[in-house]
Amino acid sequence: MRFDEAYSGNVFIRSHGNYEESQAVIYGMPMDWTVSFRPGSRFGPARIREVSIGLEEYSPYLDRLLEDIKYFDAGDIPLPFGNVEGSLDAIRTFVAKVLADGKFPLGLGGEHLVSWPVFQAVYEKYKDMVVFHFDAHTDLRDNYEGYEYSHSTPIKKVCNLIGGKNVYSFGIRSGMKDEFEWAKENMHLYKYDVLEPVKQVLPTIGNRPIYLTIDIDVLDPAHAPGTGTTEAGGITSRELLDTIHFMANNGANVVGCDLVEVAPVYDHSEMTQIAASKFVRELLLSFVK
Description:
- Catalyzes the formation of putrescine from agmatine.
- Pathway: Amine and polyamine biosynthesis; putrescine biosynthesis via agmatine pathway; putrescine from agmatine: step 1/1.
- Belongs to the arginase family. Agmatinase subfamily.
- Keywords: Hydrolase, Manganese, Metal-binding, Polyamine biosynthesis, Putrescine biosynthesis, Spermidine biosynthesis.
- The chain is of the alpha/beta class.
- It has one domain (about 25-285): Arginase, Chain A, CATH 3.40.800.10.
- Helices cover about 35% and strands about 15% of the residues.
- The strands form two sheets. The chain has an eight-stranded parallel sheet with strand order 4-1-5-10-9-6-7-8, with helices on both faces. A two-stranded antiparallel ribbon has the order 2-3.
- Helix 4 links the parallel strand 6 (about 130-135) and strand 7 (about 165-170).
């Protein structure tokens, strides 16, 4: 596995050219092998990078510049097309290497199942980790149509791995009734909103390591139509930015994050991928110190 140069294609704006000297690593997980509605999220990582050229390097929210940190864009991990387990293994191996080298991993999806091997790799290093999950959907199924590997299962899998009481889901507004009932007893699930419940929860976490996973469909389709499973009634782009900044300004010990489910083909205006690239900038400047 190469770490001396990006795997392929464009890189995120101002990516540092040296893996060894980097503090953070951006990597793509171009997989949508298990989607149940609209495919296309495998093209998300590449397009997020491409539109990042339109970003300013300065964040007025944080008064920081991208040049203040060193991050390396490794490009998209080469995944075996259509091979679910092989793809998950490749992601897990890659992220384990990044973590072993003491770097902050920032992943771009891809369907939400790609977060599952990342959870596993992060848990190997941080046994006291908690997961913050921003999403429209519960993702708490045990399987989908009999298949255990599905974009609707990663949060149930991580609950089983680290204990549901260490998993916090925010912005949820869609799922099966039995998923919501299971969540009441076994984890922390907050419906519809993100910022206010994060304000309530964060002080209870202390300095425990947080892994943050963001499904772009936590946003209302008016703000992010370019995703596979849109769900009306979501938050605004401003609310997501405010939440990221609240965490940054209030001591959240975020040790890694991902942004998934951007499917550019469904948004010819490109507002989804442009917003996603801005979120990536703010995540880097918020949590890479």
